[in-house]
C-alpha cells in the first residue's frame, strides 16, 4: 500500500481540494495516444507533462489533475500520423470541448488559477481555443488560464550541451532525443532501447500536409531522428531544466499563490 500523493487530484479528498481552491494552481496535463517508435509506449505525450507537473508541484503550490490522455490528430509533419495502429485521436472540436468544459467547471467552483500543460504539439490550438471559449464574456475577476507547451521551454544552450551531435528541430523530435531521455528518467521501465533499429536515421519531415494521409511520409519505426543518443542522465538534466522554467512561469503568472504551502 503506497502513500497517497497529495499533489494528485485523483488521490486527494474533496475537502482537501476545497481547502486548496485558489491556494494552489490546478495543472491539467494534455497528451495524446500516439505511436512513439518501437521503443516507447503510446502514452508518452501524456506521461511527460504529467510528470513535469508533479515535479513543478514540489516547488510551487499546485494540484495535478489526471491527464487528458487523448489528443488531437497526430500529423506526419510533426512526427506521427494516423497510419500507426494504436494512434487514437480526437477531432479538434472534441478536444476544444474537453478543454472548455474542464476550465469552465473549475471556474464554476471558484478556481481562478489554471494551467494547461501540453505534451503534444497538435493539441496547442485546440487547448487555447477551449480556454478562450471558457473565459469568453467573464468579468475581469483575476481568473487566469496559462497554456504551456513544455518543449518550448528548453533553451538552445541546453540542447547544444546535451546533444552536441545535433538537434533536428522540434517537428522531427518525435520519440527521439528529448522524449526518450525524459521517459528514461521518469519511467525507465517503459523504455525499450533494445528495440531501436540498429541505425539512427535522419528523416526529412514534410513541411506540408496531404489529406488523406499518404503512406511513407514517416519511417516505418515512427522515429524521425536519433534516439540512441538519448539517456536517463540527459533526462534528469532536461527534467530539472524544464521544471525550473515551468516554476518560473507559475511564479510570474500566479504570484499570489507563491506563499501557500506546497502541499
Ligand atoms: Zn511525443
Ligand atoms: Mn505528439
Supply database-style keywords:
about 260 residues, alpha/beta, Rossmann fold, about 35% helix, binds zinc ion
Task: State the helix count.
Answer: 7
Based on the coordinates given, report the CATH architecture. Answer: 3-Layer(aba) Sandwich
- What percent strand? 5-15%
- The domain tally reads 1
Taking Cα atoms only, what radius of gyration do you get, to the nearest Å?
Answer: 19 Å
- The level of helicity is 25-40%
- End-to-end separation: 21 Å
Give, in order, the helices and strands.
HEHEHEHEHHH
Mean pLDDT: 94
Written description of the protein model:
Helix content is 34%, strand content 8%. Strand 1, helix 2 and strand 2 form a beta-alpha-beta unit. It is globular. Manganese (II) ion (MN) binds next to loops.
Short overview:
With 263 residues, the chain is α/β, with parallel strands linked by helices.
Helix and strand arrangement:
Layout: H1 14-20, E1 25-30, H2 44-57, E2 62-64, H3 92-108, E3 113-118, H4 124-135, E4 144-149, H5 156-162, H6 177-186, H7 232-253
Parallel strand pairs: 1-2, 1-3, 3-4
Helix pairs in contact: 2-6, 2-7, 3-4, 6-7
